[in-house]
Amino acid sequence: MNTLGLVFMRFCAGIRTTLHLRSLRCSSGMSLSQIDEEVAKLLELKAQLGGDEGKHTFVLKTAKGTRDYNPKQMAIREKVFNIIINCFKRHGAETIDTPVFELKDTLTGKYGEDSKLIYDLKDQGGELLSLRYDLTVPFARYLAMNKITNIKRYHIAKVYRRDNPAMTRGRYREFYQCDFDIAGQFDAMIPDAECLKIVYEILSELDLGDFLIKVNDRRILDGMFAVCGVPDEKFRTICSTVDKLDKMAWEDVKKEMINEKGLSEDMADQIGEYVCMQGGMDLADCLLQDPKLSQSKQACAGLTDIKQLFSYLQILQVTDKVVFDLSLARGLDYYTGVIFEALLSQTVPAPVSTRVEQNMAAAGDEAGVSVGSVAGGGRYDGLVGMFDPKGRKVPCVGVSIGIERIFSIMEQKAEASLEKVRTTETQVLVASAQKNLLEERFKLISELWNAGIKAEFLYKKNPKLLNQLQQCEEKGIPLVAILGEQELKDGVVKLRNVTSREEVDVPRADLVDEIKKRTL
Amino acid sequence: MNTLGLVFMRFCAGIRTTLHLRSLRCSSGMSLSQIDEEVAKLLELKAQLGGDEGKHTFVLKTAKGTRDYNPKQMAIREKVFNIIINCFKRHGAETIDTPVFELKDTLTGKYGEDSKLIYDLKDQGGELLSLRYDLTVPFARYLAMNKITNIKRYHIAKVYRRDNPAMTRGRYREFYQCDFDIAGQFDAMIPDAECLKIVYEILSELDLGDFLIKVNDRRILDGMFAVCGVPDEKFRTICSTVDKLDKMAWEDVKKEMINEKGLSEDMADQIGEYVCMQGGMDLADCLLQDPKLSQSKQACAGLTDIKQLFSYLQILQVTDKVVFDLSLARGLDYYTGVIFEALLSQTVPAPVSTRVEQNMAAAGDEAGVSVGSVAGGGRYDGLVGMFDPKGRKVPCVGVSIGIERIFSIMEQKAEASLEKVRTTETQVLVASAQKNLLEERFKLISELWNAGIKAEFLYKKNPKLLNQLQQCEEKGIPLVAILGEQELKDGVVKLRNVTSREEVDVPRADLVDEIKKRTL
């Protein structure tokens, strides 16, 4: 063993003791998540050591915060995507695609405090590039670049954030976003209402249990900050702090406002009075009468739009799941009007292997592990103008569905149900009952493929019939087409139903039709 | 204007003169492609300067060698993908997905001379990462990591190469690969034959004109190098040089072998005699009798397998497009057995806007712009073992369809035909004939969405009927559901066929069924 290996051994021994002590502390209710951190550090050290020891010491892992999808997970993912894409198409959207990386400058100045989470590419000569952080900024760049002032498009693709991953709760560094956006100059709140209707339709159809869509408006937040005495230049950073209310108690948010962001206690308390308010159209009405808030023109414009929005949502019959919530702030800088976020009420049952971590997280989160936000969006009327050479604005509103959390739930649901997830669509397995029939199998399967039948065979010269039948059971293939000397002589194929074990001789010429009929 | 701006102005003035001189030279037949290079340099300089001048001087472009897909291009892309995915599913494949980046170590030592084209991510603390260069290495990593010894999977995803882009010929730095691979210990040439059948099916169904699939075997190449006196350690680098025969004349390849790779002229000449050979099963038979080549056990094993492969291809009825070609080498290091590559015979008609560049390229390429290779693959029995801690091998064979070149052709075909490409699937537009009916439109469209009908409406309070009908014409929406005071009173909706302009009153309760019936 080389020196690095020895260092590693000593390091491990040290950590083992630490782990032992920690676990004792944990059983008395102390933090287990620190152990996860230590383990992660250890694995990274192991990775670094492994890389130096030659060809067979590769670290077999995916990059931190990322994962592979196996065929079963892909089958579930496809199902989720289909529901979402169908909804987007039902609402008349086209689709576009943009590259996975953008010029670094394109992303600069769009994400506020989150900009530190952007992945940069190494400077290998040429342009400076970054991986996309969301699909909204590339969309705005696309509109400005192609001078498009009117489009309804969806875009489903992966985005990248160097965030702290929490994979059991569906938080990854590489993850899918499913975005639907409407760009164009239209009458107030009509496309905004459609976006909320879309979230409602998708979350209902995915059947993930109860959900709630919170709605607010950046102009109401800004107006509220103004009347509470917050200086203009602190609006965005205070907005980021308010945004933490879904994860932090008000007392901690207040502390951050005072200690880190420099508000007076009085300002913070005034904000505190507003951000605990929740309601519907009535609350908007009521706040329009609020002696303080109504002094802000911005706030009034936002409140009037919220009222209009709720009136459309009533016609769309979705108000049972929508709430006007003054604590909703959203992290990103580019929102200018209505903002919204959808949350599932359901807690996620953790897989057994990770239940310890989950329980700890639950303890930290007060009660039950909420998967939190599964969709979010809002109006960003200024973003396209940031890209246009003449600053021409294209008003936009859109929503982004966060598929990973939804996918975590769907996966766990599939695991809990006993139904087997098929990962192929194969209709028939071409089998032989005797030896030396490989060429005949090749000939038959080729006929089937050419006729559009989904067919497989075993890649063996002389497979046993039993093995061929087992393959069908394992993969859920419903039919077997069996060839033997007798069948070849008679010009037939023995077609066997895998579940019922019934067999019939089918004339070769009728086989394709018979398979199609049985696997509709 | 700041200093950088002035530098830019002076630089431009200089280039303008250069361009002027160059264009004179061009009209007398000199290189135009140098101008393209200068223009590219200028644009990059402009980009760098622009970044410093504030918010509205963004360079509105995608990263070099990448592009957006607009809705029309996406509609075509979807069509191509569907054909390919259907074929993969017809052959019983599951699908997986892997992250867009891998640990840098995972990609190291897999691509030979092409490794310099890998995109690295910036070291922002933590692991060193690279963008995937193909889907094959991540697949091998996935198999080793999950101890999978038997799988048939497809994977369609983007890969990244810092190559010299030639976008009009479909060569990009970000591009899709559509991979189908069979992993497992099977009888010789059975899965290999299926891979070739798949290429044959896909290229036939895409209807891109005539094509040719070249087949060879790495063991034949290595045996040939051995009997020609090439030292073992030069096999892979000489292989890379032979691989250039599709773009370079033999004389130039020979020069590279002698001057850059250090072969003797005699060795090169001996190789030259073999690499001009093309044929079928007969050629393999003939070479098995070749007094020199038959002395290599490796070559004989390869030739025997080629014979076996052709016997299966005959049963699969695809030999009309398959040729055994000793010049086929493939660039990548990891192939160990059969290799193949599919080429379209068709030349691509260039879009008018880029015809100048195309003509230049054509002049360089002797005659017509060939899109070249559209699919390639082979057997790589050692790759998974490079990842397995114990070096356990999993034999694999697979094929990769290069979608961008195919897509370029399909796009040009769509442009040439006058048929309009629809980018949405909207069945009906909900319209109003009078003012103040927004709420009624909202109500009706909500009913339609809830019934699964694909419907749109204009985001205006009081749109003109003419504008609403125009929208249908533009987007190819086949039906309009028109609401007016009278229709509301009568409990009907006026359903209009956009093409024929026929209108009928449909009772509200029957509307969904009527729309479904008409848009099946």
In a nutshell, what does this entry contain?
The structure is a homodimer of 520-residue chains. Chain A contains 19 helices and 16 strands.
Low-confidence stretches of chain A: 1-32, 49-56, 350-369
Helix run count of chain A: 19
Structural class of chain A: alpha+beta
Q: Write down the oligomeric state.
A: homodimer
State the helicity of chain A in percent bands.
40-55%
Biggest β-sheet of chain A, characterized? Answer: 9 strands, mixed
Please state the overall shape of chain A, judged from the principal axes of the Cα atoms. elongated
Mean pLDDT of chain A: 87
What can you see in these coordinates?
The structure is a homodimer of 520-residue chains. Chain A has helices at residues 3-27, 33-50, 71-90, 104-107, 136-145, 190-206, 218-227, 235-242, 250-260, 265-275, 281-288, 297-315, 355-364, 383-387, 403-416, 438-450, 465-475, 485-490, 511-518; strands at 94-95, 101-103, 129-131, 151-160, 174-183, 211-217, 278-279, 322-325, 338-344, 373-379, 396-402, 428-432, 455-456, 479-483, 492-497, 503-507. Chain A has 520 residues and is an alpha+beta fold. In chain A, the strands form 3 sheets. In chain A, strands 1-4-5-11-10-9-6-8-7 form a 9-stranded mixed beta sheet. In chain A, strands 13-12-14-15-16 form a 5-stranded mixed beta sheet, sandwiched between helices. In chain A, strands 2-3 form a two-stranded antiparallel ribbon. In chain A, helix 1 (3-27) runs antiparallel to helix 2 and helix 9 (250-260) runs antiparallel to helix 10 (265-275). The longest helix of chain A has 25 residues, at 3-27. The model of chain A is unreliable at 1-32, 49-56 and 350-369 (pLDDT under 50).
